[in-house]
Here is the input.
Amino acid sequence: MIYLIAGRKGGSGKSTVTMNLGVALAHDKQDVIIVDADKQSSSSTWVLERSRYQKDLPKIHCVAKYDDISDSLED
Here is the structure.
C-alpha cells in the first residue's frame, strides 16, 4: 500500500504524520520506505538518527529525492 502525505504549506505537520505513520506500520511488521521530497530533509534526518541510536527498533528505510520523484517511485 502507498500513502501520500503532501501539501504546499510548511509547518503543517506532514513530516510528523509521516514519521508516526511509518513507526506504526513498522511495528505492525509492514515494510516501510519514506520518500522525503522536502529539501528541509526532516524525515530523512529522523530516519538516520533513529537507525543510528535505536538499533533495536523495527527498520524504516528512507530515500531523499527532490523535484521530479516519479522515477524514484517506480524503482
The helical segments are 14-27, 42-53, 70-74. Residues 8 and 14 are 10 Å apart (CA to CA).
